[in-house]
Structure formats: C-alpha cells, structure tokens
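Q: What structure does this chain adopt?
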Amino acid sequence: MTAAASRRRTRLRWWVSIAAVVLLGISVLVAVNRPRPQERPNIVVVMTDDQTVEQMQALPAVADLAREGAVSGTNLAAYPLCCPSRATYLTGQYPHNHGVQGNHEPVGGYYRLDGSRTLPVWLRDAGYHTAHIGKYLNEYGTRQPTEVPPGWTEWYGAVDPSTYRYFDYRLNENGRTVHYGNRPEEYQSDVYTRKAVDFVHRRGTSEQPFFLSLAYLAPHSGFPSRGRCADSAHPAPRHAGDFRDAVLPRPPSFDEPDVSDKPQSVAGLPRLGPEAVERITRDYQCRRESLLAVDEGVRELVGALRETGELDRTLIVFTSDNGFFQGEHRVPKSKFKPYESSVRVPLVLRGPGVPPGTRIEGLTANVDLAPTLLDAAGAEPGHVVDGRSLLPVLAGRERLDHRAVLLENGPDDGRRNPQYDAVRTDRYVYVEYATGERELYDLRLDPHQLRSAHADPAHAPVRDALAGALAALRDCSGASCRVDAAVP
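A:
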C-alpha cells in the first residue's frame, strides 16, 4: 500500500469515528426526548380537601400553574361533600348514577362505590402506570386496612380513621400498613409530597406514561385537638402562625342579617356572636397555614417533573373536592348546601392541549374530570359518563355557553341538611328541596345569594324554565346530562 493510500484510509477511519460519535450523541438526545407511543401524556391530579376558591391566594405555586395553563372561571362540585365528590371524579358520573350519596354507610362511603369501574382501572387498561397517594374515599380501610383498590399499580392510601390525623396516622403502602408518628418530618402533607416526588423520579425515565393521584388532607380539619388550631386544620410546624393576622373575609352574605327567604335549615340558624366569629377567624387562618405545605409540595412536584424532562408532557390538574362555609349565610363551618361557598371549587390545568393563559368561560364541574383525563390518554370509560371532556373547549372547538349543571345531595345527614336537587347555569341557580321549599337566585344581580326570587311573580318564566331543565337533569345519564338551559 502506498503512503498516500495509507493516509486516505487513516482519514476515512477518522471520519467514520467522528460520524459514529455524532450519531451516538443524536441517539442519546432522541432517547432522552423520545415521544411515547401516540404521544400520550402523563397525568397528575392534585386534590385538596374542603378548599375554597378564595384560599387560592395562599398557593403561589399553583398560581404559577394557572399562568402557564388554564383556570376555570366557575368550577362546581356536583355534590359538595367529600366522598360523593371524589366518587364523581373517579367515575365521571353524577352521584345519582354512581350511587355514593354520603360519606358513610349505608348510603355512602368507600364500600358503596364499584371500584372496578373507575378512572384508574380504565387508565391502567390503556397502558398507564397508576399510583395514588393520600386520602381516598371516606371509610376506606375500615374493613380491611391492607386492601388495594382496583386499578392502582402503586398504592399509598391513608387508612381511616387515621386519615384525619396530620400526625400519628397510618398508610397502606402496597398492601403493608405503615405507621407515621409525631416527628416534624412525619407531618402528613410532607410525607405525601416526598412519595410523589420519589414516584416521578422513578417513573420519569420510563416510556410508559403514568397517572399520579395526589390527595392532600389540607385544609380539612383534623387532629391533634390541641393548641391554637384545635378542631381545625393543622399547619406544618414551620408554618404555624404564618397567617395569624390574616383578616377573615366578610362578604355581604357573612352572618346574613335576613334569612327569612331561605329554607328552614338556614332560616333557623342564629346570628353569629363574637365568640363564633373568633372561632371562624382562627379556623380560616389555620386552614390557610395548612395549605402552605401543599403549595410547597406542588412546587417540588413540578420541579421533579422538570428535572426528569416530563413537565411539558404531563397534564397537571389541581382542584378540591368541595368548598367550605366560613360564616356565609350564618353557617359557621360545613359544606353540603347548594350555595356558592360550598359548591364552587378551584380548577387549574397545565400541560399538553392546554393553551397558556387561558380562562375557561362557562361552567365546568367535577363530573368533567374523568372524561377530560380519558380523552387526553386516548382511553375509554367502562360505563357511560355524564360529564364532558374539556380538551375541545380548551382547543376552541367547543363552547360551554348556556350549559346547565346538576347539583344534588343525598338523604338528610342529621345536620339540618334536607335533600335537594338544583340546576346551576352561568346566571342562575334554582333549588328544589325534598321539604317542598324552593330557592332561586340571579347570580348576576345577586352574586351573594341574599334574596331568593323563587316567589317573585316577575321571575316565574325563569323559574319555570329552570324547573324544566332540572327535571331533565334529575335522573339524567350520559348524553341526556348535557343540557342547555333556555332561560328567558
């Protein structure tokens, strides 16, 4: 071989080596950023407990999600009570269809729901790795603490009744009961956050998409029953007192002077005295303080998604199961009733298919959660769903104008909460109680629901139109639940 030929061969080998290095680098980059089959997103749902829309002010990390994604202008809990609301999230059905009509047996609770026909089952069948962390459905674990509900690949569920203890509680961790004590690092919200972050780091390198359900107890009341926040939500020790000087909101409905227009369950409530107002104020402050650990958790979770390269291919949903009274209409603390304080809950979405900076106009509801997530995943429900996917709305292909949403509750729970059915539109709410009592509010003119117009002859056409919409919704199923209210 000549010297020239040898040099040519050497140069050729050198260029082949360079090309191999370049191709290897490209393949590594492609592997790191490789789209999953069918571009199915990860799904993360973060749910708080008894959180009002007003308390979003305590959640700056969640506000960042809203700026990067979408927020619903009016999002509703169809049945503003923990277990029925969570069952609606898991099924996409109104309570009269999924059958969970309360928090406890025989009409409600965990064992009332058919767990084989729920969101995690459908997503796992569609190829998702599923995990739940935190509170599930009321009374979960009271019969068999180590039971893992259907559909969950990984399970870290709070075992009742210890679910409501911010310290000294038990989790069922994949079939094994684990006790957490009273050390500061065992504060319940922080434990949930660590498990969620660990899950993301473990699953973020997999091609298989995941569904993570993260359910905090805050700002629900809990134990221990001592100190300033006794009988309220308990903040993490590092946050105790952070909102000690927060001023309790007092909208016009606070300690409502005249409730004679309302059903006896409200009309019979006494005015709030100074001691009651002091208790409500302290409860408000403690509840906000408990949310600070949740906000830190959201920030850490988003950070883990970003570190693993999963953030922009993860659909994140933040919401609450129901709202909460803080003195409105003389109700010192509770939910259940069909007023705005109780039925309105936050809804934030961020991720694929969600245009940044979007405000969803019209009504959304927790009955829409399962259909939206299934649509994003390309998965099918195992039964007829009553809600609708919000993805076409976010894409501008559909609108929610004139939508009517059903509000309902179950049998009287012994706390002066008579059974009702109601219809909510973008302007009105009309309620029919089992007692025969009625309410009608024009929320455009009376946003604080101070004067019911149900007996006003001038509102008779509106009342009749809403009564017709309610009759259509009361026993609806599937497509028949998609009602537009033609209100004069």
